[in-house]
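Good morning,

Both structures are done.
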Amino acid sequence: MARERAGQDGDGGPAGNGAVRAAARTLREDRGPVRYGPPAPDPGLPVLPELADVLAAAAGRSEPEPTGGGKALREAAAAYWIRRGLRGGPEHIAAAPGASPLLLALIAAHGGDVLMPRPCPPTWIPQARLLGRPAYHVPTPAECGGVPDPYALLETVRRVRAEGGRPRLLLISVVDDPTATVAPPELVREACEAAVAEGMHIVSDETWRDTLHRPHDTVLLSPAEMCPEEVTVISDLAGALTPSAWPVAVARFPDTERAAARHARTLDILTALGALVAGPVAAAAAHALREPETVTARVRLAAGLQAQVAAAAHRAVLASGALARPPQAGRHLYADLGPLRSRLAAHGVTDSLELEEYLTERLGAPTPGGHRFGDELGALRVRLGTGPLLGSTPVQQMESLTAVEPLELPHVARALNIFAAALGELR
C-alpha cells in the first residue's frame, strides 16, 4: 500500500527531553506520549547579545501582543519574505508562540485529512492526532526527505478517497527536519503540482531555510513561488534567528479570498487557545526578522560552523557502517543503523525506541529515534544533533563559532571522538 496512517506503527507520538533516565523508564512502558516530544536540534551557541538587549529593553511592556502578532512583528515578517521573493503585506501574516500552536491552528482551519512525508518533523503527527484528524504518511524519494514522491502522493490520495477519506492538506518541508536535506526544485514542483491538481492546500514549513550549509551551491525553491495561491508558508524562528527559549513562529498566507477566510479562522483558533506571542519576545523577533548585519553575520557563521561539524559527524556515521544522507542544512543528521542490527541486538537494541535510549545514554544528549518522526518502530533510525559537539560552555561555543578551523579545537575534537567511538563500537 502506498500510504500508511500516521501513528499506526507504534510511534505513539514524540518522545523525551527532560530528565533522560526518568523519561526512558516511562518510555519503556508506554512507547512515548506526546508530552515527551523531542526538542528541535540545539544550536549549541549562546544567545546573540544584541537580541538579548532588545528583549531586555522590552521587558517592561505590560500590554500583550494582539492575536496573530502586532503590526511591527507582522511588517518585519512580511519584509523578510519579500527579500526571499515572496511578496505580500502584513495583513497576510499571523504569528504564534511557537510552531506547534501555529500548525495546530492551521490544520484546524482546513477541513479534511492531512498528508505528510515519511519521515516528518516530530510536531506534525501530534497536531493532527490532537484534532482527531486522519493523517497519512507518504514515502519520500531516495535523494531527500521532506517532500513526498509525487507518484506515491497520487496513489495515496486515490486510496484515501477510495476508503471514504477527504485528503485536503499536504504538509511538506523543503529544507527538512529530520533528514537535513534540501529537496531539488524539480521534485518540489512535481509534488506541489500533483497536490494542487488533487484539490489540496499545501503548508510549507521553511523553518530551516536560512541554515543551508552551502547557500551558494544549493538551489532552494519555495513551493509558494510555484503555487502562490495554494501554499501557506510557516517558519519557526528558532531555526536560525531566535533562541528556542523565546517561542515565536510566523505564517504567510496567500493573497486570495479563500486564504483570507482561513487566515481569519486561524486567528480565531489562536485566540481560543490564548496563543499570544509575549511582547518582549515579539520585539526581539521583529528585530531578528529585519535582519540587521549582526543577525545575518551570526546566521552565516553558525551555518558555516554546522556545515563543518555535521560533515565530520556524517563521516563518523559512515565509518561505523551505518547510513545517512549527507547533511545539507540545519544542525542534525538522520542516521540509519540498520546495517548494524546484529551488533545492536547484542546490546539489547532491537527497535528505534531502544536505539534512542541506548544512544542518548552513550552520547549524553537527546538522540530521538525514527519513530518520533513517523518511521516504523522496527527501523533503526535516529536523529543525531550536532549542537552538543560545539562545546559545553558559552566560552567554548563562541570559540567554536569564531575559529578558522573549529574541528581542530580540543573540545570539538574530543566531542567528535566520543561521538565516533559510540558508533564505532558497533562495527
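Second structure follows.
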Amino acid sequence: MRNIFLIFITVIITVVCVRNPQSVPLNFFGETQVALWKLLLAFFIAGIAFLFALKIGKKKQQVYEQDNIEESNEESSERRSQLSEEDREFLS
C-alpha cells in the first residue's frame, strides 16, 4: 500500500512539474527568474525534509519516554524487594 501511495505522489508531482514550465520572478535577495517547476519541486522537497525532521524528533522523544518508564519500573522493583512480606501483601 505504501508503494502505491509513493507512486501516486510521484506521478502527481511529475505532472505538476511538466505542466508548469514557465518562469516566474523571485524576489528574495535580489530579483531573479526561476522556472516554476523548480520552485514547486524545491518546496515539496523542503516539506518532506521538515516531516522527516519531525518524525526523527518524535522517535527520540519516544525512546526518552521509554527509558524513563524502564527506570521507573526498575525503581519500583527495587522498592518492592526491600519490603517485608507483610508490606507486599498490604500493597497487593
